[in-house]
Amino acid sequence: MLAIVNSVVLVGLEGQSVRVEVDISSGLPVCESVGQILYTKCLPENQKLQGKQR
């Protein structure tokens, strides 16, 4: 792990804290997003989605 940064993402008019982890390694460029995303207005019953390998 090269760096960990605490940041904020806007969800509507409210801010949610997120932790961003950055790592540098040799090989092809890859961007991975891992974690849970909670969509309160887009999906019925506040379904949680998992995201990875975007």
Write up this protein.
With 54 residues, the protein is mainly beta. The chain has a domain at 1-25. Helices cover 0% and strands 48% of the residues. The strands form two sheets. It has a two-stranded antiparallel sheet with strand order 1-2. A two-stranded antiparallel sheet has the order 3-4. Strand 1 and strand 2 form a beta hairpin. Residues 43-54 have low confidence and may be disordered.
Encode the helix/strand succession as letters.
Answer: EEEE
Helical content, roughly? Answer: under 10%
Large-scale geometry: elongated
Mean pLDDT: 69
**Low-confidence spans:** 43-54
Name some characteristics of this structure.
54 residues; two-stranded antiparallel ribbon; disordered C terminus; mainly beta; single chain
Gist of the model:
With 54 residues, the chain is mostly beta strands. The chain has a domain at 1-25.
Topology:
Blueprint: E1 3-11, E2 14-22, E3 35-38, E4 48-51
